[in-house]
Amino acid sequence: MFEQFKGKKLTRSPKDALVFGVAAGLAQYASVDVVFVRLAFIVAAIFTAWWPMLVVYVCAMVLMPIDPAQDTVPTTQEPKDVTPTERMDNSQNM
Questions:
Q1: Is residue 91 part of a domain?
Q2: Residues contacting residue 64 through CB under 8 Å, at least 6 positions apart
Q3: Number of structural domains, the chain?
Q4: Strand, helix or coil at 44?
Q5: Residues 65-81: pLDDT tens digits?
C-alpha cells in the first residue's frame, strides 16, 4: 500500500513554490499534482476557520528541509562588485 513512498524524502520544493514550497513538496512526495494539494489545503482551512491550517503550514515550513537538488541560488554565483563611480556613470547615461 505504501510502496510509492519507499526511498522518498519529504522536502520543500522552492522551484515550484507559491509561498514556501510546502504544498509543492507534499505533492512531489505523494506523486500528485500540486493544484490538488493546494485546493485540499484551502478547503481544510475554510472548514477549520483558517487558524489550525495556518499553524500546520507554519510547522511544516519549519520542519520540512529544502530539497537540496533544487537550490534557488547557484553555489558558483559570485556577487557583482559595483563601485560608487560605476553607479554614478550609469545614472548619468540615463
A1: no
A2: 10, 11, 12, 22, 25
A3: 1
A4: helix
A5: 998 887 555 556 566 66
Beta bridge partners of 12: 66
Kindly calculate the radius of gyration of the chain based on its CA atoms and give it in whole angstroms.
20
Residue 47's contacts (CB-CB under 8 Å, 6 or more residues apart) are: none
pTM of the model: 0.68
DSSP state of 71: -
Residue 72 is given by DSSP the state S
Q: In the numeric block, which cell numbers belong to residue 35?
A: 493544484
Calculate helix-pair angle for 34-47, 22-30, nearest 10 degrees: 120
d(C-alpha 33, C-alpha 24), whole Å = 8
- The rounded distance, in Å, linking the Cα atoms of 37 and 20 is 14
Say if 27 falls within a structural domain: yes
**DSSP H helix total and E strand total for the chain:** 4, 0
